[in-house]
Amino acid sequence: MNVPEHIKSIKPYIPGKPVEELERELGITGSVKLASNENPLGPSPQALKALRPGLKDLNRYPDGSCFYLKNALSGKLRVSPDELLVGNGSNELIEIAARTFLNPGEEAIMAHPSFVVYSMVVQAVNGKGIVVPLKEWRHDLDAMASGITARTKIIFIANPNNPTGAINTKAEMDAFMKKVPEGVLVVVDEAYYEYVVSPDYADSMKYFRDGRDILILRTFSKIYGLAGLRIGYGIAKPSILTGMNRVRQPFNVNSPAQKAAVAALNDEKHFSRSVTTNEEGKKYLYRELGRIGFRYVPTEANFIYIPLENGEASRLYNALLKEGVIIRPMGRAIRVTIGLPEENKRLVEALKKAVRS
Ligand SMILES: Cc1ncc(COP(=O)(O)O)c(C=O)c1O
Prior knowledge:
Blueprint: H1 5-8, H2 19-26, E1 32-33, H3 45-54, H4 67-77, E2 84-87, H5 90-101, E3 107-112, H6 117-124, E4 128-133, H7 141-146, E5 152-158, H8 170-179, E6 185-189, H9 204-209, E7 214-219, E8 232-235, H10 238-247, H11 255-265, H12 268-292, E9 303-307, H13 312-322, E10 325-326, E11 328-329, E12 333-337, H14 341-356
Parallel strand pairs: 1-10, 3-4, 3-5, 5-6, 6-7
Antiparallel strand pairs: 2-8, 7-8, 9-12, 11-12
The site of pyridoxal-5'-phosphate (PLP) has 13 residues, from helix 5.
């Protein structure tokens, strides 16, 4: 069986090993995982509570329309249910957007480094990824707008950006949106939206309300702590979502995820604890990283990007692993998730040890 060339050229996503397996290999216990920007507090307790009564109905297919979740989101966001689309993680919505709007040979503009899934889905549909380097750790929106051609169909913007945690401001996004013609879908991926504290953060809902060709993506994987259930949502005008709805699987979102998401939306205590834990952890890590002598990118998300000299990232990654601290090496940088106070402390101690050696 021949795998088509455009599929062969996709760089596969390399998932981390399960923590249990790593511990077995390294002969350690009690390691901390600060590699995947998960919520260190765990899932929303309200979501956990909501899961149990529905388990007896697992013989049934889920509600393919996500009726109750769309209703709950519709009230919270002041949008109509037909302006919402729920996905098996926001990852799935990124993929559906590419499958719906990108024909073979057409172009999608994205930044580098940014979320790896954008380039994977574009290649999978035999589209052409136009890659624009970040400027000062965030999307170079002027350069991205200059890259628009008659073949451009999608522009991906992660705001905050993963892996750098930096945001594009309101002024930058306003100027950018003025340059984007109708018929080009701007996908604003706001997976870390709830963690943002900067008053300069762009309000993407404004462009949606203005009727622009925009798809805003959010997720229950981060602040709500439900990454394992796979559920995220998109906000866009119905003309965009009608197309995407035709492409998606009829039962793309499982029923426990739908129930948990509805409950998590109302779990204000878990939400605010998550924000506070992140803010406190951020302050602590800024201070300690600075003391050790690391340069870091100020973050608006739940992780910190630390640019390094060539070769340092894998050395640090391996040194930290031996101390039972799992982080993400990324070429000439490492990315660390902000954890619980004791996890952050473990990270700092392990970094100090690695720098001394
Ligand atoms: C920028 C960005 N978008 C989307 C996702 C995927 O989120 P989900 O778990 O909802 O698929 C992530 C996950 O790490 C991310 O960093």
